[in-house]
Amino acid sequence: MFNALDDFRVLLARLLLVIVVFGVAWLLRNAVAWLLSRPLKLMLSRARASADIETVIRSIVLLPVRYLLLALAIDLAARILELDPPWIGFALSVGRTVVIVALAIFIFRLINTFIISTRSLYLFAGITLDAALLPFIRTGVTIVVIAIALVIVLQVWGYDVTGLVAGLGLGGLAFSLAAQDLLSNLFGFAAVVSDRPFVVGEYIKTPDVEGTVEHVGVRSTRIRQLDQAIVTVPNSKLAAGTILNWSRLAKRRVDFLLGVEYATSADQMQALLIALREMLQQHPKVEKDSVVVYFTEFADSSLNILIRCFITLSEWAAFTAEKEQVLLEVMRILERMKISVAFPSQTVYYQPVDDLPGLPPALRHSLPPTGSPPPSLPEER
Fold first, then answer.
1. Is the C-alpha dihedral spanning 48, 51, 53, 58 positive or negative?
2. Rounded distance between C-alpha atoms, residue 115 and residue 357, angstroms
3. Which helix (H) or strand (E) holds 56?
């Protein structure tokens, strides 16, 4: 009887001790969370983080710490109660599972907190990424964390995961082969978003299409051409091709040849060159250092003057209007100096047949005599 009473007292004491263990674990949750959050707080304090971020860090750490303390309490309770080996093994497996879940929750909350904006990601890890890539990174990292946690939990409970991992590898290979176009477009989207060769609203030119970017999607990009037609281009093609972005010009170039008549004298040409240079140098929208005005060649029908300069306007309509003003000023200078613009022409010289030396007699007799009227054409009936 006394032995049974003693066993009951020992069991009661152990149960009370187990209750105390769980109570202490519950009471220590905030203190342990505060201690574990200090490294993150120190890291963010160096990055000049705000107090709100520190509060978020505490909320990240608190729930995983509760699970960790619960796992520790389960392990201690199993040892205090001196359970049979199968039950102790079961309790240890439960504790390890809770630890794995706690770590997965910690990583999951960390991802959802610090990969929510480019600024928070930079404060936490010092990495700068485009905001459009963050949802894909969060989803990818979350899937990886869940998969790793699931595999570890299965190993804890004694399941052989070798076949599972091999099956997942084969399945991933089959999926990648079946969806290679989708994956290539997805990586193309990542390249376009990270390198930013263009953004929505910019005018671009590729080997296949030219127009204004209206939408950048995960699989493709929509471009509106000048004829208002919409062209959908796969992102993989854009990422692998050459892209000319007209919207990122800081200035645009004026480049043309001005041809004047051969009747222009050397003095007139020199005065014209001086007047053109002064006009461009004094123009408010022309970059002064870029002005090039030179008499370059004696062409077939004209004396050519090379005119080049940069206009400090990037928008096409404004640049075209300013170029128009420059051309009008060139016309006024030509009118003021009474110099004409040349146009393609040919001069034909006529010489009588009798004056041609060395003409064979047979050919000379076959030609009409000098001064004879040209032969008449037959009438149409």
1. positive
2. 94
3. helix 51-81
Q: What is the rounded CA–CA span in Å between residue 314 and residue 295? A: 29
CB 72 within 8 A of CB 86: no
Cα gap 237→208, rounded to integer Å: 10
Helix (H) or strand (E) holding 307: strand 303-311
20 & 36 share domain: yes
CA distances from 53 to 40, 63, 99, 130 (A): 10, 17, 25, 21
Give the tens place of pLDDT for each residue, 327-377.
Answer: 999 999 999 999 999 887 777 766 565 555 666 666 556 656 655 555 555
Which pairs count as long-range contacts for 19-25, CB under 8 Å and 24+ apart, including other chains? 21/73, 21/76, 21/77, 21/80, 22/73, 22/77, 25/69, 25/70, 25/72, 25/73
Nearest to 53 by CA among 124, 118, 139: 124
Question: Does residue 305 share a domain with residue 220?
Answer: no
State how far the Cα of 316 lies from the Cα of 68, in Å rounded to an integer: 63
Residues 104 and 235 grouped into a single domain: no
Contact 327, 293 (CB under 8 A): no
Q: Count of domains in the chain?
A: 3
Q: How far is the first Cα of the chain from the last one, in angstroms, to the nearest whole number?
A: 148
Q: Count Cβ atoms below 10 Å from residue 66 Cβ, excluding itself.
A: 20
Per the structure, the complete domain to which residue 260 belongs is given by 249-336
Q: What is the CATH number of the domain that holds 223?
A: 2.30.30.60
pLDDT score recorded for residue 85: 72
- d(Cα 222, Cα 204) in Å, to the nearest integer? 12
Report yes or no on 349 lying in a domain: no
Average pLDDT, rounded, for the chain? 76
Alpha helices in 196-297 (DSSP H): 235-240, 266-282
Question: Sheet holding 303-311: strands in order across?
Answer: 252-260, 303-311, 292-298
